[in-house]
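Colleagues,

Please find the record for the two-part complex below.
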Amino acid sequence: MSLDLKTVRRVASLARLHLEEGEDARLQAELNGILGWIEQLQAVDVSGVEPLAGAGGTAMPMRDDVVADGGRAEAVLANAPDRAGEFFSVPKVVE
Amino acid sequence: MHPTDFTIRGALEALGEGIVTSEALTAAHLEAIEALNPRLNAFVTVTAERAMEAARASDRRRANGVARPLDGVPLAIKDLFCTEGTRTTAASRILGDFVPPYESTVTANLLRDGAVFLGKANLDEFAMGSSNATSAFGEVENPWKRGNDDGTRLVPGGSSGGSAAAVAARLAMGATATDTGGSIRQPAAFCGIAGMKPTYGRCSRWGVVAFASSLDTPGPVARTVEDCAILLGSMAGHDPRDATSADRPVPDFAAACARGVRGLRIGVPREYRLEGMPDEIEALWQQGLAWLRAEGAEIVDISLPHTKYALPTYYIVAPAEASSNLARYDGVRFGRRVEGGDLKDLYERTRAAGFGAEVKRRIMIGTYVLSAGYYDAYYVRAQRVRALIKRDFDEAFRSVDAIVTPATPSAAFAAGEKQDDPVAMYLNDVFTVTANLAGIPGLAVPAGFDRQGLPLGLQVLGRDFDEETVFAVGTAIEHAAKLTAVPQVRAFA
């Protein structure tokens, strides 16, 4: 499979990456190089093999459904680029 | 002998006997950093005052008879571990001057045991790279030089390049590192030191900036195998805040180093014999096996048939997880923001300005393989191949106790080489990436030198949660190799 420019731009939009003029063509070449190399996985017989999501092996542990942390607004907001009171602020979303 | 030449074991003994103080050890390392870091660029942040305060507090504890297991040992911390009150960058512009309001579990465990933190070590951006060239804070120089060629700058490997260079050059006695596809073992091998990627789940990931969560594994680098074992003993342990952290006791790793290898069965996977691999690497591998045989181990040929699919599998799984993990960097809650016309534009411009080229490439690959229509063909298929790679190891470990391979397919290369072709760079991790996919422990141990005098390492792989056998085999190789050469660029040289 090889990516066309339209797909590169669509993926960049999904990934929330602004592309500069000409960057889409460069990425297209790089990504197609990597995807071409990855293509060899199509040769592996994986019939009947369950996908392995993680290496942990053990089941996810359960914990008590109780509040264990919170009430630290100042610490949470300390690194915010912009804030209003106890809230993160962003440009207006709804007109 | 300078205080920077101590091993961790040696320093702990000297501290215990009152031969040296942590204040003196720490001051010597800070002096070495001041002299050499402008050249090596191994640290992005040096916390000199905090280090000296911690050293004096350590000396007071020792004087009062309440010294802890690592009391007074000066360490470097890879700048991927969140440190409360100290800037944490992941070597990316996008985190800006992020100062974590919390301490990662691994670094908290080291502080609990009395370690002194010298500062934050350089790395590839978000730990994505094999040469430390993708850092927003500039490249790191390998303290080793080729033969008489003082002019060529060699890479320290990556992503834990700052950690490995700092320890090799004696700017720190040991360091924390992380390994997602080889990021502990490859730089350790390039810098002539030991590096241990423990079993997935052995060390908590809580407070470590996430790259690929099912692969990321914190671990130590140090100048001896035993020092790695000592550090891992402090770093490891169950953490309820990481759901993948293993709830099992931490063995005495340092004691396991001296077990010897008599009666152990050591596997040699035929698929790790690559076409075009330098004959020096092959010779080193055979030498390592001969040493182990002489110590009473039995060498057994094994097969890991899906080895050649490990790297392409990794380059689907890791970018997929990275694209998801790195979605949080959007210029809203922390880090750098670039204003835009609307919220989506703000996100897109923030991320375009904040991420470097390699990180963007991986986010793009990850987003693509997870997108509708490609998810099954790429991502699910990669997870199935991952299961086969794990199965290969499960079957091998029915007949062997450990596996020995080369750590890397070459010695350290020059800065600027392999930068233009992402796939050529990815091949650095050909021997290491399998352990991440399977979750098993892997140790890089210095074992020899190439013709130009550059360090070469061997890798020891073990069963899940059997780091002890890995340390025993690594120590046997280290003792047989009897290496004495030191890097040209080092403290007080």
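The domain at 5-43 of chain A is CATH 1.10.20 (Histone, subunit A).

Comments are welcome before we finalize the supplementary table.
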